[in-house]
Amino acid sequence: MTTDGEFVASSEFYKGKVMVHVWSTKNYDNVSQIITIQKGPIRAMAFAFANRYLVLVGSERPHALLLYDWSHGVLEMTSIVSLFMSHPADR
Asked: How many CB atoms are closer than 10 A to CB 36?
């Protein structure tokens, strides 16, 4: 959820594609849909930088970190994270 409470994000993994939806909490409209470059399900997501961006972390190893300008559906940055670290649930 954005820090102002106006938007919330969800993701779905369907037929090998990951789609992220951003919803208005005022009228429940789907205000943004992003088909991501992520290969597997999303492990975590959060709004960042004054709610302008949506940060996604994938569950596939190595974990991809994706930074989207969600209001324009633009991928701004990618990175690899936790290459040598594991989540306790993975053990």
From this structure: 20
62 preceded by cis ω (within 30°)?
yes
- In this predicted structure, what is the pLDDT of residue 26? 97
Across-strand partners of 77?
A: 67
Q: Pull the structure tokens for residue 54.
A: 């949506």
- pTM to 2 decimal places: 0.80
CA dihedral defined by 71, 34, 26, 10, rounded to 10 degrees? -130
> Using CA atoms, how far apart are residues 28 and 75, in angstroms rounded to an integer?
24
| CA atoms within 13 A of residue 79's CA, in its CB half-sphere | 9
pLDDT confidence of residue 63: 79
Angstrom CA distances, 20 to 58, 67, 88, stand at 12, 12, 25
Separation CA 32–CA 57 (nearest Å): 18
